[in-house]
């Protein structure tokens, strides 16, 4: 049984009100620190190289978000809900329904649900039915209209949250799209489970007539996994940004030489990102919708000496080139910085509108026969 720690609400909404918070995440963080120390103390070259790789990757992954330890793994309530500010769900939460900025989320550890608004304030917790009933009540009381129009789902990568995709929202909304930032517990579930969270959210988007997806890094693999299992006819176009469609060489390196570190930090989905010819990625079909690829790097040899060829520090350029893409665009950029790059945003909007990444010039499709 997971140990629990009683913590008072930071804002003290009422005398004596407390929340129980699982200590699992603290244990994970301690394990990560210990494992890094073990690797750094290893005197062989491979140990030092692997430690450097883990630290390099962790540095890149931490560059644009607050520590995940501050997330709110709130338990099932037995008393009326007190509106509580959360971080919106990063490590332990997966979205299952969206409505005009409101989200119902599922906790992967405690298995309960919560309802949060567009400012990440919790309005209900308990079963999914209880959260849905509260959302229905809010719809009636506030006379919220049905959703309609054209939507874009933003799917983040491993160890990230929807906050890492926030810079896409202004240009997409300016272009007339409704934007749905999607969260899932990327380091706690495998790719099939992550795809099931995405499926539930897509099913919840009643009234949206046409739907697109913009997916960064592992989010692109989650999207392909979803599409291999489900076929919502509204899904029209897909943009894959810095996504390791052929696997990640860093996953190969760390899984083979530092498997405990790799499992601890990146979870079950991370282990599925290997380039193994018989691995999970090799079995995924090419998306049956129109899609484009945007990749980062630094010619000619990339940012990371441990990755062969050009790379964005995390993913090789070659791995992003998924056969069958309608268009391809290279942006000189680090992996996470792709999400904050104006050229990436402009190309994404353009492709969703017209099927082309560039204003001028011919598209650069990736032939299906390319291996």
Write up this protein:
Helix 1 runs antiparallel to helix 2. The chain contains ten helices and 13 strands. The strands form three sheets. It has a six-stranded parallel sheet with strand order 9-8-10-11-12-13, with helices on both faces. Strands 3-7-6-5-4 form a five-stranded antiparallel sheet. With 371 residues, it is of the alpha/beta class. Strand 6 (113-116) and strand 7 form a beta hairpin.
Keywords:
10 helices, Rossmann fold, 2 domains, 371 residues, globular, alpha/beta
Topology:
Layout: E1 4-8, E2 18-22, H1 24-41, H2 45-61, E3 84-85, E4 93-99, E5 102-107, E6 113-116, E7 121-126, H3 128-142, E8 149-155, H4 169-174, E9 178-182, H5 191-204, E10 208-216, H6 218-229, E11 235-241, H7 249-257, H8 259-271, E12 290-297, H9 317-320, E13 327-332, H10 342-354
Parallel strand pairs: 8-9, 8-10, 10-11, 11-12, 12-13
Antiparallel strand pairs: 1-2, 3-7, 4-5, 5-6, 6-7
Helix pairs in contact: 1-2, 1-8, 2-7, 5-6, 7-8
Strand tally, please?
13
What is the CATH C-level name of the largest domain?
A: Alpha Beta
| Lateral arrangement of strands in the main beta sheet | 9-8-10-11-12-13
Give the ordered list of helices and strands: EEHHEEEEEHEHEHEHEHHEHEH
CATH superfamily of the largest domain: Alpha/Beta hydrolase fold, catalytic domain
Question: How much helical structure, as a percent, in the residues?
Answer: 25-40%
Poorly predicted residue ranges: 1-49, 58-71, 73-79
Number of helices: 10
CATH architecture of the largest domain: 3-Layer(aba) Sandwich
Strand content: 15-25%
| Cα-atom radius of gyration | 21 Å
Indicate the mean pLDDT: 84
Report the CATH topology name of the largest domain.
Answer: Rossmann fold
Shape: globular
Instruction: Estimate nothing, just give the exact number of structural domains.
Output: 2
